[in-house]
């Protein structure tokens, strides 16, 4: 039994380092107000940016779909797993983010896992931001392309890496970045990235999971916010965050790119089609997102209020305007303080999460707060009050 004792030793190491993740169990639907096994809480750590996770008409659409379309597909898309509504959802996503077409995956993790190997081989180069999401890193690893990295949002380093790729004679060069960096709430400088891409003849590939549905005037994403709707080549994203938060991911881009993915992307070819009720609910979520100007305005107000009240109260928050707000606890004992404060806040009925090394750099522990359109002004004020009381 040396295998099991090795595994137990590894678990003990994780525990000893204070890195064990314990999953809190909800006893309610996902929402701004939740019930958990340790009591009711105001939820400030979901990716439920538009508050759609338990929205009535989405739930109704998913229920109706169970009747009309059944429970499961029991097939990959190309065998017999494509209903008309799967295509409808793909077209609807493409229309929303402003590309010619889109293709669904079981998750954005799978979308990113399948994308790169289809387009990048040993004669190509991929230049990626050092803070990119794990799924981008894994997807890029699956290629035989030359891999180059630049420090987070550092445009002079990006330029140097692009030059390196060009000097190495790369056939294709892809620049890969998150639209929003999830630990900081910072936007990638997509306008500058597109300028460099033009200069070096590179493709721009953006994972906009923390933006689709609510960032930009019409919620189309970071490319809308930064005025580069027509200059980003490929967008990946998730249905598991703002757009109802169930599951599913996509790649959106030019029609031939989507068509080749249908022929070659392994997680698409060899994994089950997205469940009918999730497709129907997501279609409804997109419809709502299109008309969600009020929710986006509420989200913006909540974010501004939270950021300004926290600053007034003397907390250090990373600058910006995204609903992800990092409340910093720097220095030696920052990790411990962040954890203690998050625990004390939960006792006061406010659920937030502390992050420390290795998820964020050493000495930069933080509590990440995520605002939602589902929060009221009173909810936001209650969250700030809990921070103040927990700080002691
Ligand atoms: C959440 C997230 C993903 C994963 O999305 P899933 O659909 O849950 O697999 C991928 N990339 C980024 C940037 C994310 O934030």
Descriptive notes:
With 392 residues, the chain is an alpha/beta fold. It folds into two domains: 17-50 and 293-391, Aspartate Aminotransferase, domain 1; 56-290, Aspartate Aminotransferase, domain 2, CATH 3.40.640. Helix content is 44%, strand content 18%. The chain is built from 15 helices and 16 strands. It has helices at 2-16, 56-69, 77-80, 84-97, 108-119, 134-141, 155-167, 190-200, 222-225, 255-264, 266-269, 276-290, 293-312, 334-347, 377-391; strands at 33-36, 39-43, 101-105, 125-129, 146-150, 173-178, 180-181, 186-187, 203-207, 234-238, 249-253, 316-317, 324-330, 350-351, 353-355, 364-370. A seven-stranded mixed sheet has the order 3-11-10-9-6-4-5, sandwiched between helices. A four-stranded antiparallel sheet has the order 12-13-16-15, with helices on one face. Strand 15 and strand 16 form a beta hairpin. Helix 13 (293-312) runs parallel beside helix 15. It is globular, with a radius of gyration of 21 Å. It starts with a helix and ends with a helix. 48% of the residues are buried. It binds pyridoxal-5'-phosphate. Pyridoxal-5'-phosphate (PLP) is lined by residues 107-109, 133, 135, 178, 182, 207, 209-210, 238, 240, 249.
